[in-house]
Structures are given as C-alpha cells and as structure tokens.
Design a protein that fits this description.
The protein has 124 residues and is mainly α. The chain is 84% helix and 0% strand. It contains two helices and no strands. The longest helix has 68 residues. It starts with 11 loop residues before the first helix and ends in a 5-residue tail after the last helix.
Length: 124
C-alpha cells in the first residue's frame, strides 16, 4: 500500500478553487445578460404582434370600404353615369386593399411564430 500526499502544494488547490469560482461568476453574469436580452426580445415581439393586430383591423376596414366603393362604381357604370375605367380603378383598389390585408395577416402570423420561438414553444 502506497500513499502520497502533498503537504506543500503551494496554493495550487486554492488557485483551482478560485479559478472555478471565477468561471461560475462569469457564467452567472452571462445568464443574467441573456435573460435580460430574451426579455427585451420578447417585449419587442409582443409590440410587433400588437402593431400587426392593429394593422389587420385597419386593413380589414379599408378592404371593406374599397369593396363597397367597387360595388358603387359598378352600379354607376350600369346606370350610365360613370365610365368603365372608374369601375376598373375601384376594382384595382379593392384588390390592393385585399393584398394589404393579407400582408398584415402574414405579419401577425410571423410575429406570433417569433414569440413562440422566443419562449421555447414550437409554432403551430
């Protein structure tokens, strides 16, 4: 049976412990920094989601108004008080309003997916 023990390790053990404590402190600082960053990113994503929701409401209202304008333009053409070009312009405006609505819906869905990704859920 043989046993060795360094009585005088010249503070080597204390140095290793100090190094590990420094690494632990650095890891804790990194964790705190990342938690703050994720919190900021989540708040930004929620603001983007709210903005996208508002844009959907605005785009939906605009789309309804453009469709009504298109219907009125078609009635004016039938009645002979307006030109076909006005009806076509109204139709184009209605289609553009539809595209804007779809774009706002897409922005909302992307914001939702971003939030789910940030909080660690898989998107639906």
């Amino acid at each position: 049976l043989q046993m060795t023990w360094d009585v005088l390790d010249f503070g080597k053990r204390r140095g290793v412990v100090g190094e590990r404590q420094a690494q632990l402190a650095q890891a804790e600082e990194n964790l705190a920094r990342l938690q703050k960053r994720v919190a900021v990113d989540v708040r930004k994503a929620y603001r983007r989601l709210e903005r996208a929701q508002q844009m959907i409401e605005v785009a939906k209202e605009a789309m309804q108004l453009r469709r009504e304008n298109e219907r009125l333009a078609a009635n004016h053409v039938k009645a002979g008080v307006s030109l076909e070009s006005k009806r076509r312009e109204a139709h184009a405006a209605a289609k553009k309003a539809e595209a804007d609505y779809l774009q706002a819906s897409l922005a909302y869905q992307l914001a939702q997916a971003e939030i789910e990704q940030l909080v660690g859920r898989t998107p639906r």
